[in-house]
Amino acid sequence: MGGEEKKMYLMSIRPRYAYRIFSGSKKYELRRWFGLRPEPGEIIVVYASGNVRAIIGEFTAGRVIYGEPEEVWRYIMGQRDHGVRREDKEYIAGSRTAMAIEVLNPRLYPEPVSLYKLRNIIPGFNPPMSFRILDRDEPLYRLIIARLRKTL
């Protein structure tokens, strides 16, 4: 049997962090936890927020560490070449629970898909504040992401 298809997520990341992921220097994405918890092997599609406002690439989730912010931070600091900076700790410090997603196989799409273009194809589209499940039946996946993934 083929097994169940892994979930995908659409995640908003500030440009300076997103580009560190795709340059290979940032090995973990830290998040305040609010209920969604990717599993290893699942795909994270990256929407670079801020002044970029575009879907720019994807990565595969490796290990997912979940717990109190200080506990997650200690784990990350124990890893070699983690690429996480002090400002990342400040981001998760205010939450009750935090999550670190190991970044594996980061892949930039050949061309970013701007928010303007996204809204021309899918009127009313809004990127998530943090991240959400990306359903393979929804127009965003069928009309845009599936085509981008074929170019990788």
Tell me briefly what this model is.
The chain is an alpha+beta fold and 152 residues long. The chain contains 5 helices and 6 strands.
In CATH, what is the class?
Mainly Beta
Low-confidence region ranges: none
CATH homologous superfamily descriptor? Hypothetical protein
Count helical runs: 5
Rough outline: globular
Terminal CA distance reads 26 Å
SSE pattern: EHEEEHHEHEH
Q: Could you say which structural class the secondary elements and strand pairing correspond to?
A: alpha+beta
Q: Mean of the pLDDT scores?
A: 92
Q: Give me the Rg, rounded.
A: 15 Å
Strand order of the largest sheet: 2-5-4-3-1-6
Binned, the helix content reads 25-40%
**How many separate domains make up the residues?**
1
Beta strand %: 25-35%
Q: What is the β-strand count?
A: 6
Task: Describe the largest sheet.
Answer: 6 strands, mixed
Q: Which CATH-level-2 architecture?
A: Roll
What's the CATH topology label? Answer: Archaeosine Trna-guanine Transglycosylase, Chain: A, domain 4
Search tags:
single chain; 152 residues; alpha+beta; Archaeosine Trna-guanine Transglycosylase, Chain: A, domain 4; six-stranded mixed beta sheet
Structural write-up:
With 152 residues, the chain is of the alpha+beta class. The chain has one domain: Archaeosine Trna-guanine Transglycosylase, Chain: A, domain 4 (Roll). It has 5 helices and 6 strands, in the order βαβββααβαβα. The protein has a 6-stranded mixed β-sheet with strand order 2-5-4-3-1-6. The two termini are 26 Å apart.
